[in-house]
Design brief:
The chain has about 130 residues and is of the alpha+beta class. It has one domain (about 5-130). It contains 4 helices and 8 strands. It has helices spanning about 70, 80-95, 110-120, 125-130; strands spanning about 5, 5-10, 15-20, 20-25, 30-35, 35, 50, 50-55. Strands 1-2 form a two-stranded antiparallel sheet. It has a two-stranded antiparallel ribbon with strand order 3-8. It has a two-stranded antiparallel ribbon with strand order 4-5. It is globular, with a radius of gyration of 17 Å. The protein starts with a strand and ends with a helix. GO terms for molecular function: hydrolase activity, acting on acid anhydrides, in phosphorus-containing anhydrides; metal ion binding. Its cofactor is Mg(2+); Mn(2+). Keywords: Hydrolase, Magnesium, Manganese, Metal-binding.
Amino acid sequence: MGDNNGEKEKTITRLAASLILFQKQLNKDGYEILMMKRSDTASFNSATVFPGGALDKVDNLDYWKEFEFVKKIKTYKNKKLTSLKLTAIRETFEEAGILLTKPQLSLTDSEVKKWREKLEESSENFIELCKYYK
């Protein structure tokens, strides 16, 4: 970091998670990897990144106890790691419109748009989304 009149800038750190999604290319030996370009106005502007973002209050495991799928996550007893996994899933849907579910859901374009808009209002709407499709 540069200095400001001899004073060091403070670096603020926060927990965050990214998700790396890849698939085998059809009829080829290679793989496709999902990466996104950040907006010109965001932090790390114009960088090419994996989808992801900062841990949010809603990613706290206490909010998710009623969901059976969360209890099946191998790291369930590690609250911080499981919360970061939820962060990566939520952020991937927010940024890319890809919702990782098992069994796989097929959302229409209008459903994806509606839920992404709700998540822009509040990340807590991710719990509402999961309850709706439970």
